[in-house]
Amino acid sequence: MPLHIRPARQDDRAALFNICLLTADSGTDASALFSDPDYPGLVWSVPYLDFAPEHAFVVDDDGEAVGYIVGTPDTTAFEARLDAEWWPQLAKQYAGRTAKAPFDAKVLDRIAAPAHSHPGVVATHPAHLHINLLPPAQSGGWGRKLIEAELASLRQAGARAVHLGVSPTNTRAIGFYHHLGFEEIERSEGLHLGKAL
């Protein structure tokens, strides 16, 4: 079957971990930067499969996910749920782990002391999303199609505006988001782009 978009399923869990790892260095392979290949997915992809599955979609290539988009219409409520149900279980599971690779601390610190989204960003753009694509899905408009599916899903859930974070050095991704109507709304440690729905 040719590439197509479908809702994410629980059996996509391993693929979401893998795609997140292979794109976690500003869109490129971060395998050498994490000592545990699951680390990036614990923060930026898999929790959405558990806590916001209705807003999770994948690009399917003959039954295998080669790209995903995840998000939530209410960032504050989502983060509160993670605080109650996600981070505590990870804190137990990963207790005693120390950083052994360059990016490990980004995840281990988040597990130990969960960070929350920029309050000014969430006040004006309460929804958020994450998108990552492997090379087979990086052409042919699949990124745009995933964004369109996610924005429709968030809009249907009542979200009035959405934001996303991107590395200021990822100029290719920034150009892609600008082309889709996202505009810069905040720049501090990273860059936040937003779009009204």
Short description:
This protein is an alpha+beta fold and 197 residues long. It contains nine helices and seven strands.
Secondary structure elements and pairings:
Elements: E1 4-7, H1 13-23, H2 39-44, H3 46-51, E2 57-61, E3 64-72, H4 75-85, H5 87-93, H6 104-112, H7 119-124, E4 127-133, H8 142-156, E5 161-166, H9 171-179, E6 183-187, E7 191-196
Parallel strand pairs: 4-5
Antiparallel strand pairs: 1-2, 2-3, 3-4, 5-7, 6-7
List descriptors:
197 residues, 7 strands, 41% helix, 21% strand
Describe this entry's structure for a reader.
The mean pLDDT is 96. The longest helix has 15 residues, at 142-156. The chain is globular. It is built from nine helices and seven strands, in the order E-H-H-H-E-E-H-H-H-H-E-H-E-H-E-E. The protein has a seven-stranded mixed sheet. The protein has 197 residues and is of the alpha+beta class.
List the secondary-structure elements in sequence, H or E. EHHHEEHHHHEHEHEE
Ends distance:
32 Å
Helix content: 40-55%
How many separate helices?
Answer: 9
